[in-house]
């Protein structure tokens, strides 16, 4: 089993880990929504409610939102970590 890839982008302390396996990967966030989101967004997800669909569009693969901080990526592209990192860096910072 390979070591996870740490993905930064939301900010310090809000890193994610991508664990790659044959046919799927898991994406786990330290905090989701990120710690900079206000309490209302953290409680209701706010503009993060479609995050799985946004990831699926970005990666061109099925994304299953299994738990608040845990996503399963079905057969993601080889450059998934790089795509996710760029996506997180540019994600709208509403609810700060």
Shape: globular
The largest beta-sheet arranges its strands as 1-2-3-5-4
Q: What is the number of strand segments?
A: 5
Poorly predicted runs are none
Q: How far is the first residue's CA from the last residue's CA? A: 38 Å
Q: Proportion of β residues?
A: 25-35%
Supply Rg: 13 Å
Query: What structural class should be given to the helix and strand makeup?
Result: alpha+beta
The mean pLDDT is 91
Order of helices and strands: EEEHHEEH
Can you count the helices? 3
Name the helicity range. 25-40%
Q: Into how many domains do the coordinates divide?
A: 1
> What is the makeup of the main sheet?
5 strands, antiparallel
Keywords:
96 residues; alpha+beta; 5-stranded antiparallel β-sheet; 5 strands
Description:
The chain has helices at residues 39-44, 51-59, 80-89; strands at 5-7, 16-21, 24-29, 62-67, 70-74. It is of the alpha+beta class. It has a 5-stranded antiparallel sheet, with helices on one face. It is globular. The model has no long low-confidence stretch (mean pLDDT 91).
Structure summarized in a few sentences:
Helix content is 26%, strand content 27%.
Helix-strand blueprint:
Layout: E1 5-7, E2 16-21, E3 24-29, H1 39-44, H2 51-59, E4 62-67, E5 70-74, H3 80-89
């Amino acid at each position: 089993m390979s070591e996870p890839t740490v993905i930064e982008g939301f900010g310090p302390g809000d890193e994610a880990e991508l664990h790659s396996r044959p046919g799927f990967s898991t994406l786990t966030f330290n905090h989701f929504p990120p710690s900079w989101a206000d309490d209302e967004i953290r409680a209701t997800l706010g503009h993060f409610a479609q995050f799985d669909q946004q990831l699926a569009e970005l990666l061109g693969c099925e994304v299953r939102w299994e738990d608040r901080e845990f996503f399963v990526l079905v057969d993601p592209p080889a450059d998934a970590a790089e795509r996710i990192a760029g996506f997180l860096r540019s994600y709208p910072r509403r609810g700060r």
